[in-house]
Amino acid sequence: MVVAGIAAFPELADGLTYLALAGVPILAALALAWAIRGARPWLALVPIPLFAIAWAVPGTLTGQSAAVVLSALACVALGTLLAAAVPARWLRLAIYAMAIVDTCLVSADLLQSPNAVLNSAAPAAGLPQLQFAHFGSAVLGFGDLFIAAVLGALLAGDRRLQLRATGLAAVLGLAFDLLFFFVSLLPATVPVAATLTVLRASPRERRVSGSGSPPIAARGPRDAAA
Fold first, then answer.
1. Measuring CA to CA, which residue among 68, 72, 60, 67 is closest to residue 136?
2. Cα separation of 24 and 113, whole Å?
């Protein structure tokens, strides 16, 4: 939907930039104060220095790291809220659908131009661009981080399974990234969907999430992991 919107109305990218600028720090604070494992109200202040660092040194790895942390935390909050409100079976289908759509868009060369427009949009006064994650030469869309956070929220009721998913996603992601030797753009949602597929093949994971309700809904956001 975002890709189609930007393709039809390029000025939408500017609006999304300011939406991310305002929403990401707030959601990051929500994640630290409420959603992550070990959340504490005073942790809601942490995004303030992170935002300041991202603003002060935007072209450095330090500034980029601060911005990535803010975006990742914001996705955790969004994923937590979504997993608490939507049945797990629908979220799993959404992860698969997102990976399929992304793959089709990249293969058809329909994602590159809207992505370039969105990534080039910048707020005034040198404020940080939080509508995507940028670290060194790597660029990752906000939606890609969000899908990974949704998977983490789905598995939040089982800490061991969540850690297993983290390791598996890292391995699959690194293996998938080898394709960068041949192409310049990849659908980052594919390793997340592949991780879910592997986990769903495990009888233990089916016992955890096969009921249709995400574990997080039963345990509460404070027990969720980032």
1. 60
2. 24
H or E segment to which residue 105 belongs? helix 88-107
> Rounded CA gap, 143 and 111, in Å?
13
Domain count, the chain: 1
**Joined tokens for residue 67:** 């911005």
End-to-end CA distance of the chain: 26
Residue-range definition of the domain harbouring residue 13: 2-223
- For residues 118 and 23, give the distance between their C-alpha atoms in angstroms, rounded to a whole number: 16
pLDDT score at 1: 64
Name the phi and psi angles at 137, rounded to 5.
-95, 0
Phi-psi region of 187 (alpha: psi -120 to 50; beta: other; left: phi over 0): beta
Parts of the chain with a pLDDT under 70: 1, 203-226
